Amino acid sequence: MNKRGHVLNAVLLSIGLGYLLEPAGDLQTFETIVAIGVPVTLGAMVPDIDTAFGKHRKTLHNLPLLIGFFLFPELFDNLEYVWIGVLTHYVLDVAGSKRGIALFYPITKTEYNLPIGVPVSSSRADLMTVVVTVLELVVAAAIIYDLPRRGFEMVRQSIGL
Ligand SMILES: [Zn+2]
User: Fold this and answer.
1) Residues whose beta carbons lie less than 5 angstroms from ion ligand 1
2) Residue 10 Cα, ligand 1 centroid: separation in angstroms?
3) pTM: predicted TM-score of the whole model, two decimal places
4) Buried-most residue among 36, 63, 155, 159 (CB within 10 A)?
5) What separation in Å is there between the alpha carbon of 48 and the centre of ligand 1?
6) How far is the CA of 25 from the centre of ligand 1 (A)?
7) C-alpha distance from residue 78 to each of 64, 66, 75, 135 (Å)
8) Membrane-spanning regions, if any (predicted)?
9) What is the C-alpha to C-alpha distance for residues 157 and 141, in angstroms, rounded to an integer?
10) Distance between CA 81 and CA 10 in Å, rounded?
C-alpha cells in the first residue's frame, strides 16, 4: 500500500481500538484514540522509509524491526504502541496489496504475500484497506475481550464439564 493507505489504516484502526478499550464514547474514549493513534500512525509510516534507505519491502519490512519496536517500550520506557503501527503496516502490505514483504530479511529475501491483495494503484485499494482494518479490529476485539477463552468456557459449561 501507499502512504495514504497506511495512514487511513492506522487512523481507522486507532479509532476502533479507542472504542474497544473505552467503549463509552466520552472524553476518555477520545483521549485513548489520541494516545494510541499518534504513535500507531507514526509506526505505520516507519517501514516505507526503506523506499529511500535500503531495499523496499525488505530492509524495514521484517520481523527483527517489529520485535525491536515491540521490545523498545520495555527497555527504554518510550515509544509505546509504535509496534502496532509497524505490525498493521505489514498486515496491510501482505493482505491488501499484490506484492509481499520479506518478513525474514536479511536471512532470506523471499517476499511473503496473501493472494487476496489488489494493486496499490487500484480503485479498490481504499476498500481493501478498510476491509483489512475491520478484520484487524475483529482480532483485536477477540484479544481485548478474551473471546477464545470465554467461548471455550461457554462450550465447557454447556456440555457440563
Ligand atoms: Zn510497506
Assistant:
1) 47-48, 93
2) 13
3) 0.92
4) 36
5) 5
6) 32
7) 18, 15, 8, 28
8) 59-76, 127-147
9) 23
10) 11
